[in-house]
Amino acid sequence: MSVLIVGGSGFLGSELVRQARAAGHVTAATFATRPGSVPDASWHALDLRRPQLVESVVADLAPCVIINATSGGADWAVTAEGPVRLALAAARHGCRLVHVSSDAVFSGANVHYDESQLPDPVTPYGAAKAAAETGVRLVYPDAVVARTSLIIGDRRSVHVRVVHDLASGRWDGALFTDDVRCPVHVSDLAAALLELGFSDASGVRHLAGAESVSRYDLGVLIARRDGLDFSRLRAGRRSESGIPGGLDVRLDCRATQRELVTCLRGAREFLVEGMNAPSNP
């Protein structure tokens, strides 16, 4: 089976490429600025803002499965419009598509969100991700839209880097005690995305960790795993910071988890398990 990882040079994308190759899939991946370093994968430059290039890459590679793991932030042309161009190409060429979305599509007003609840974003990034979900589902109803949360792993994870920068004094900031999410380990997320890609699933799925933690508590867990001085992590409250976005957003993944062999572990489980393992520099 063949798979195309769009955004394969990123943090999640690299793990998807690695796992796809380890499973024996013929693997291609795209990059925006420079190719990734995973061996035995073919690398292709792709700008999701260019419809003809999107069409050309999909047509030339003709993969069985496409997983879109790109992250364009609040750039509307990349984050909102790009996935729709990709979905159109995937539908035209009969490729299965898994589009990775985010819990940022929710405001936090309801706290607990299952797959049936409609987006109500409160940030430009969340609005772009919500628009992409709508567009993908409209042009390609058989696609999977997989919402996830904070992605944790080694220091390629932005959340892990922040903790290291705080503990070392390279950054003077705070981790919020009232900002709650359901973090997921990058290896669990990649395995679940590939599992969905090679299934007959369609529609919205939630792929986040099995427990909710605040960003401060997550930081302490990461610091302990990596042997850092967690007493240097300063606590704060997002509600007092003026930073926009939902406070308490918890993805309910129980329905999706029942469909999967992959176990979506909670942060305390995968971070405590990793305490005795060496962290990547």
UniProtKB/TrEMBL annotation:
Gene3D superfamilies: NAD(P)-binding Rossmann-like Domain. Signal peptide: none annotated. It comes from the Bacteria. Residues 1-242 form the RmlD-like substrate binding domain. InterPro entries: NAD(P)-bd_dom_sf (IPR036291), RmlD-like-bd (IPR029903). PANTHER family: NAD(P)-BINDING ROSSMANN-FOLD SUPERFAMILY PROTEIN. This is dTDP-4-dehydrorhamnose reductase. It comes from Streptomyces incarnatus.
